[in-house]
Specification:
It is a single chain. The chain is an alpha+beta fold. 35% of the residues lie in helices and 22% in strands.
Length: 368
């Protein structure tokens, strides 16, 4: 993915905020801006009006000498970012020279430890502010290449679940089913699962973030499967709920139909200019009509990208309007303690013409 335009936009935002130099410690933000995906590194970027030999420096160590050069050049940011390989003393020395003329140097507050903050302050021999300019805000609006990557991650996850769904009839344990699903995602090209796969059956399904156990999935069980794949660093997120058997209980049918209607109502509301809170309200209003809204105990959704949980947050207090390029989930659920739970979730991309559902595996709940 080409990333140089992201650095240019960040430099403009720094100018607007009156920040001369920004120190970036969040590795995902480093990757977003430079393409570098190593496990050790930091980035220092100047504002558009700040005079320096180069707009930025990527710091990493000798393990990533070849990788950093390759990925930075492939991303197109090589003309904007110098790479410095060395230990922390070498990195701090170069950063001090870079920021020598800076009247305001800032650092990412959300991802920098207090120890690291003091180390940078000492090394640069100047006071460092916590930055109000957040790269995460810039990351919220995905470009076409990012959406393509998320779409591919969703396709891989869909295909993997389709392959393993018939295994439910063999009554595997929750752990076995989760392991097989993650195996097939990797075999289909995923870098790994987006998160620890959730497989929760029977009364266990009433726990929204249950961990798979050695409980065997048996006929008559509802089964919640929450899963995702990573492709080129980008995540997918999807939840489906199934019933193992041909004759679901009246309670399961009632709850499933209510959650499905709620999820469709929320998804239909996810449009450009709509406040995130209205998506949440649409899901809750639908469940209220079914008399089940009190059992919906978490927020309606979240953004998806380089992290599986990122901006925008879809809950009742977020009045921010959805924008073109937002990629988000809509995932209402109903959880009856000690009895059962149902959750249905899709990853959705917001476009000027509407929205696109990126997770497309069928929602038919019966496995028999």
């Amino acid at each position: 993915m080409n990333t140089n335009h992201r650095i240019i936009e960040l430099r403009r935002r720094l100018d607007e905020a009156g920040i001369d130099v920004l120190i970036i410690t969040n590795l995902l933000n480093v990757r977003y801006l430079t393409g570098f995906s190593g496990s050790a590194g930091s980035l220092i970027i100047s504002s558009a009006s700040y005079t320096s030999d180069s707009p930025g420096i990527l710091f990493t160590d000798s393990r990533y000498m070849e990788q950093s050069e390759q990925q930075v050049n492939e991303s197109g940011s090589g003309a904007l970012v110098e790479i410095v390989i060395g230990n922390l003393s070498r990195q701090y020395e170069m950063a001090r020279l870079f920021a020598a003329k800076s009247s305001k140097t800032a650092i990412e507050g959300d991802s920098t430890s207090l120890t690291s903050f003091y180390a940078w302050t000492s090394a640069l021999e100047k006071t460092i502010a916590v930055s109000e300019v957040k790269v995460e805000t810039q990351r919220q609006c995905k470009d076409d290449n990012e959406i393509d990557a998320i779409r591919r991650a969703c396709q891989i996850a869909d295909q993997a679940l389709e392959k393993v769904l018939p295994r439910l009839k063999d009554e595997p344990t929750e752990i076995e089913f989760a392991a097989e699903l993650e195996f097939h995602m990797r075999m289909l090209g995923a870098q790994g699962p987006s998160f620890d796969t959730i497989v929760a059956s029977g009364p266990h399904s009433a726990m929204p973030h249950a961990r798979p156990t050695d409980k065997r999935i048996i006929e008559g069980d509802p089964v919640v499967v929450d899963f995702g794949a990573i492709w080129d660093g980008y995540h997918s997120d999807c939840t489906r709920t199934y019933f193992l058997g041909s004759t679901p209980s009246r309670q399961f049918k009632r709850v499933y139909e209510a959650v499905e209607a709620s999820q469709l109502a929320g998804s239909a509301t996810a449009l450009v200019g709509t406040a995130a809170s209205k998506v949440d309200n649409a899901c809750r209003d639908s469940l209220h009509q079914a008399g089940l809204d009190e059992f919906f105990t978490h927020s309606t959704g979240h953004g998806v990208g380089l992290e599986v949980h990122e901006l925008p947050w879809i809950h009742k207090d977020n009045k921010s309007a959805l924008s073109v390029g937002d990629v988000m989930t809509v995932e209402p659920g109903v959880y009856l303690p000690g009895e059962m739970g149902v959750r249905i979730e899709d990853t959705i991309a917001i476009s000027q013409s509407g929205s696109e559902r990126l997770t497309n595996i069928a929602k038919s709940p019966l496995i028999y």
